[in-house]
Amino acid sequence: MTIPAGHVSNVREIITLQGHILQQQAHHPEATGTLSWILSALSISAKMIASQVRRARLEDVLGQVGGENVQGEQQQKLDVIANEILLRTLGGRQGVAIVASEENEEPVILRNEREGERRYCVLFDPLDGSSNLDVCGAVGTIFSILRQDRRAARAEDSLLQPGREQVAAGYILYGPSTVFALTIGAGVDLFVLDPAIGAFVRVQQGVRIPAAAKSYSVNEGNRLTFPDGYQRYLAWAQEQTYSSRYAGAMVADVHRILLKGGVFLYPPTRKAPQGKLRLMYEANPMGWLVEQAGGKALAAPGERILDVQPTGIHQRTPVILGSPAEVDRVIHHLAP
Ligand code: P6P
């Protein structure tokens, strides 16, 4: 049977994440494929973690392994499993020099040759918001990729680069569907895992965050310990009948803001005077994604998250990110 010529032009092109990565690589003739191969490892890891998350209750994996991670937080069994999946798949990629995880106090130095092909550092939060697991809430994986800095005195110092040096960043949201968000510095693209074919299919290119939206996302339980400016902002937003949405997992909250607009806040609190969120594998990747979608991401008034010079891989930072107009409204109330 011949297909009428006009028919084919109506068929929507199906691009997988793998195909998209190769398309992007083709735009860079100098590319060796090393970064593409690392992104491929993250895609495989996401599918493996998604499978574990979906079956967690069935395999009675939920619950606490009994240990604590470097953050002093109770480790969920799936935290450990997701961490091991990422360490194993990334460890098998020759282009990965160093990996750093929320779950590991020290980075893992895999390869440290100072010559030869360029290598990369991969930082990740393997299962962000994992406490949501027991209640079937959304959880996510966040990753950030930097070039290895061969001039660094110590291999691990290569990790201490400001977020503006990232070459790729993204998250995987394990929700009603499994969504992979990626930027390599040319906008934000979204992919959804199709379990029928075991591939992430591109569903949106060039995500643009709405310029404004009357919605904020913050843990209001900490409100009374926020600095006064944040309390002034929340009082103002409530007078303006803003809606409040908070999933307790950064990936879920930021994904909603990328698509619907609004502002996400994790201010300094009495318990976390520097903020709770980690700069290197939460604020930097999520901040870059938001900026790449046309939003703003600040640590404080006039302080762009991506310009913060890190001094430690687990350091924390306050976070104000989202629609530009909404971030500006928060900053307006923080002014003394
Ligand atoms: P709180 C999850 O533990 C996390 O690191 C982020 O994903 C989330 O935005 C935040 O902490 C939630 O913290 O104090 O509101 O429970």
Descriptive notes:
Strand 3 and strand 4 form a beta hairpin. This protein has helices at residues 5-9, 17-26, 34-55, 77-91, 228-239, 250-260, 279-292, 324-334; strands at 64-68, 74-76, 96-101, 108-109, 120-128, 139-147, 168-174, 178-183, 188-194, 199-204, 215-217, 243-244, 263-266, 296-300, 303-304, 319-322. The protein is 30% helix and 24% strand. Helix 3 packs antiparallel against helix 4 (77-91) and helix 5 (228-239) packs across helix 8. The chain has 2 domains: 11-204, Fructose-1,6-Bisphosphatase, Chain A, domain 1, CATH 3.30.540.10; 215-334, D-Maltodextrin-Binding Protein, domain 2. Residues 128-129, 219, 248-250, 276-277 line the site of 6-O-phosphono-alpha-D-fructofuranose. 6-O-phosphono-alpha-D-fructofuranose is lined by residues 128-129, 219, 248-250, 276-277.
How is the topology of this model organized?
Elements (H helix, E strand, L loop, with lengths): L4 H5 L7 H10 L7 H22 L8 E5 L5 E3 H15 L4 E6 L6 E2 L10 E9 L10 E9 L20 E7 L3 E6 L4 E7 L4 E6 L10 E3 L10 H12 L3 E2 L5 H11 L2 E4 L12 H14 L3 E5 L2 E2 L14 E4 L1 H11 L2
Parallel strand pairs: 3-5, 11-12, 11-13
Antiparallel strand pairs: 1-2, 3-4, 5-6, 6-7, 7-8, 8-9, 9-10, 13-16, 14-15, 14-16
The structure holds 6-O-phosphono-alpha-D-fructofuranose.
The site of 6-O-phosphono-alpha-D-fructofuranose has 8 residues, from loops.
